């Protein structure tokens, strides 16, 4: 975890999305979320998800040699890593509760936590979900197709022993970063051709000059199991634990199919912020999630062309659109 010290009675935990590290919360400098929170007096903590460049160590396993290190998805992130981080912060601050902000898959982990370890609901003052990800049933055709293909490729790679995707030394990642930072072609190919096509088009918020800062660390390493798990959620149209196949499911779950996460157990207060131009966290899927969660205290839709999936962490005007709405929520439940 990274830490920007502030008022210890006001800890707030930030979690980035898939294939991201916590630098997404500082990449815009003084107009970034972490800096905004710090200058507002909060004690800011940011958790690098397991496996990304800044979270690539283990007591016993070598990530470069031991495939067992990569045997995790967002389930293990939510069931093991997140409660460990929460307890660490509360011990250091001598507080009983903290606030949290999760972006994309960073808030998915809280749904896993609240449903499988419900005692942790009482340790969260409020969880602000930016571009919420849980159900994946109302995706645009291109995004739906890509998720299916990624899931197939992930399963294939796992079958031949490839457990890590997009490592820092991989040819694919180096090629991606080299192309995406080229003037002209980089913006057309990577931003317009990939990021906007998947996450939603909003060029006003992501200028060409900003790309080199993004692609210094993005995309970061991800486990093939996590990619497969996301694909399962989309293909099976339910938010459930990892499907290992009939034999392993019977041994692990005592059932033919993996159990669904019981979202009614997620009792923590949740404030949801979504963009009407988001191609991944769609309005339809977010409404499904809102209706399942028992304690949604705020639901804000940025309508029209404002905010795609990327803007919540990379947009250059979030200090105008987003942060003035986040801070009052944090203050209300402090």
Q: What is the structure about, briefly put?
A:
The chain is of the alpha/beta class and 334 residues long. It has 13 helices and nine strands.
Describe this structure in words.
Residues 11-132 form the AB hydrolase-1 domain. Belongs to the AB hydrolase superfamily. Lipase family. It is globular and about 50 Å long. A 7-stranded mixed sheet has the order 1-3-2-4-5-8-9, sandwiched between helices. Strands 6-7 form a two-stranded antiparallel ribbon. By secondary structure, it is of the alpha/beta class. It contains 13 helices and 9 strands. Helix 4 (141-159) packs across helix 8. The mean pLDDT is 93.
User: Strand order, biggest sheet?
Assistant: 1-3-2-4-5-8-9
H/I helix tally: 13
What is the CA–CA distance across the termini? 22 Å
Instruction: Output the helix-strand order.
Output: EEHEHEHEHEHHHEHHEHEHHH
Write down the overall geometry.
globular
Largest sheet: 7 strands, mixed
The radius of gyration over CA amounts to 19 Å
Helix content range: 40-55%
Mean pLDDT: 93
Strand elements, count: 9
Q: Tell me what portion of residues adopts beta-strand conformation.
A: 5-15%
Class by alpha and beta content: alpha/beta
Low-confidence region ranges = none
Question: Notable features of this structure?
Answer:
334 residues, two-stranded antiparallel sheet, globular
């Amino acid at each position: 975890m990274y830490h920007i010290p502030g008022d210890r009675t006001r800890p707030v935990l930030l979690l980035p999305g898939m294939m991201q590290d916590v630098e997404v919360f500082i990449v815009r400098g003084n107009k970034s979320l972490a800096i905004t929170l710090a200058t507002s007096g909060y004690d800011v903590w940011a958790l690098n998800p397991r496996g990304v460049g800044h979270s690539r160590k283990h007591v016993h396993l070598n990530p470069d040699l031991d495939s067992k290190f990569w045997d995790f998805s967002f389930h293990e992130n939510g069931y093991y890593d997140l409660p460990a981080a929460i307890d660490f912060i509360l011990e250091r601050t001598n507080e009983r509760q903290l606030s949290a902000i999760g972006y994309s898959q960073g808030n998915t982990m809280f749904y896993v936590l609240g449903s499988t370890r419900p005692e942790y609901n009482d340790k969260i003052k409020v969880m602000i979900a930016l571009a919420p990800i849980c159900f994946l049933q109302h995706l645009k055709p291109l995004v739906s197709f890509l998720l299916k293909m990624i899931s197939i490729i992930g399963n294939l790679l796992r079958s031949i022993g490839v457990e890590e995707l997009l490592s820092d030394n991989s040819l694919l990642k180096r090629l991606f970063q080299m192309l995406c930072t080229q003037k002209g072609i980089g913006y057309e190919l990577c931003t317009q051709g990939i990021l906007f096509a998947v996450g939603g088009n909003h060029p006003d918020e992501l200028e060409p000059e900003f790309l080199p800062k993004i692609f210094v660390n993005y995309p970061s390493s991800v486990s093939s199991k996590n990619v497969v798990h996301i694909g399962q959620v989309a293909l099976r149209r339910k938010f459930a634990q990892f499907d290992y196949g009939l034999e392993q499911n019977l041994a692990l779950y005592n059932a033919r199919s993996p159990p669904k996460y019981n979202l009614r157990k997620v009792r923590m207060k949740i404030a949801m912020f979504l963009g009407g131009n988001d191609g991944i966290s769609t309005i339809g899927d977010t409404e499904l999630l809102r209706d399942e969660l028992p304690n949604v205290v705020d639901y804000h839709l940025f309508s029209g062309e404002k905010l795609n999936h990327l803007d919540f962490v990379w947009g250059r005007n979030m200090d105008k659109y987003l942060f003035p709405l986040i801070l009052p929520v944090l203050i209300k439940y402090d």
